[in-house]
DNA sequence: CACTCGTTTGAGCGGTCGTTCAATATTAGC
DNA sequence: GCTAATATTGAACGACCGCTCAAACGAGTG
């Protein structure tokens, strides 16, 4: 269980791509077997179930999102980092990435109480991203880039909501819409 | 085919509730058979396939959305009607309605090219709602409630994006978030 | 009431689903 | 190089999927 012959991280990455593209229900185990090149026994020995594997892909996705955000925060002022992160999230979603949607938002949209644990996990991971937003918003206030009378929490939830809306709208319009204008409008009330 | 013994509209309504709640893939025909109280033969005689029935539920959902919007537009100034519609869409979604999500946005998020026709239909219906937004935005400009140098098309797409984001965020937070504040923030740039 | 013809029924089809487990292959320790 | 321990394989399982169709039903007509 602990020392697998295959590269666990690599396996999760490949599974993430597939789940992200097709969603939980539309992805079959046989689909996964082909993509991650493992037979059912190995998958179940490593991850326990389809749900178990999916949970790890959610965490993988959330981690890489947080890393992207941190990368921008390291080289840009907080508010610019937030805008850069959101712009990147929405626009890179148009081409190379599996779906145009946020995988966590897509999961929250798809799942019901029939998969309560996965639904709760996706919500929890979204919250961790929002917390990172809150920290950056607070930092922006300290640096005077943002009104100090605004609640950083409220700004963070607003940005999270914008990100969800932007990705969903981008997908609904096949990226034909003027996304850049929409992002500018979204940030208009802040800067 | 044309004269069914069951109430076709009532059947579609019930199916809409179920599809809206669980999504296309997670809703089984046996599920539907129970809810709409028809046996498979009748369903296939009336709607042809699961996809055919789903398509009609999408149209049913879009129509009732457009009717709600028209209802508000009949008794309120254009901009207030838009805000009332969005507020209603997001807040009624918290309780009685099947999902907290917009059924069309949920469908666009869930489906892939494996169901290309349904995906295209959901996108098309979203666009019809956006067109209604555009008309109201233009009317608001004529009445001086909105800057005339803003493109009504751009305002409409912004509002559509906001609506998608609000519903998705509301679902992700179990409606615990301060949705009213978010709506105010969303409209802050307009009024 | 008998006949007609479109509607409804529901058992059941072929296929795919997530999952299991005995058999096999691979590695690590001596 | 043998053995014990562990990872991997893949055929197969029961359950459920979307869907079909011969048979039963029932409203309208004469």
Largest interface: A-B, 41 and 41 residues
- Contiguous helical run count of chain A: 9
Outline the low-pLDDT stretches of chain A.
none
What's the mean pLDDT score of chain A?
Answer: 94
Topology of chain A as a string of helices (H) and strands (E): HHHHHHHHH
Report the oligomer: homodimer
Largest sheet of chain A: none
CATH domain topology of one domain in chain A: Tetracycline Repressor, domain 2
User: Helix- and strand-based class of chain A?
Assistant: mainly alpha
What is the total tally of β strands of chain A? 0
| Proportion of residues in helical segments of chain A | over 70%
- Give the N-to-C terminal Cα separation of chain A: 51 Å
Radius of gyration of chain A: 18 Å
- Proportion of strand residues of chain A: under 5%
Highest CATH level, the class of one domain in chain A: Mainly Alpha
Protein model, in words:
The structure is a homodimer of 191-residue chains. By secondary structure, the first copy, chain A, is an all-alpha fold. The first copy, chain A, has a domain of 130 residues: Tetracycline Repressor, domain 2, CATH 1.10.357. Helices cover 72% and strands 0% of the residues of chain A. Chain A has 9 helices and no strands. The mean pLDDT of chain A is 94. At the A-B interface, helix 6, helix 7, helix 8 and helix 9 of A face helix 6, helix 7, helix 8 and helix 9 of B. The structure holds a DNA duplex (30 and 30 nucleotides).
């Amino acid at each position: 269980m602990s020392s697998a012959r295959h590269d666990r991280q690599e396996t999760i990455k490949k599974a993430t791509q597939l789940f992200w593209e097709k969603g939980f229900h539309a992805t079959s185990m046989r689909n996964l077997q082909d993509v991650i090149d493992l037979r059912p026994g190995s998958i179940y020995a490593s991850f326990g179930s389809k749900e178990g594997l999916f949970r790890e892909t959610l965490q993988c996705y959330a981690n890489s999102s947080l890393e992207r955000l941190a990368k921008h925060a390291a080289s840009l002022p907080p508010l610019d980092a937030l805008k850069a992160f959101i712009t990147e999230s929405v626009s890179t979603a148009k081409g190379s990435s599996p779906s145009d949607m946020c995988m966590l938002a897509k999961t929250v949209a798809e799942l019901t109480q029939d998969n309560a644990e996965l639904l709760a996990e996706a919500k929890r991971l979204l919250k961790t991203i929002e917390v990172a937003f809150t920290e950056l918003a607070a930092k922006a206030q300290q640096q005077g880039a943002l009104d100090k009378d605004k609640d950083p929490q409220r700004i963070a939830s607003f940005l999270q909501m914008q990100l969800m809306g932007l990705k969903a709208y981008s997908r609904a319009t096949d990226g034909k819409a003027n996304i850049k204008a929409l992002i500018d409008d979204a940030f208009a009330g802040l800067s």
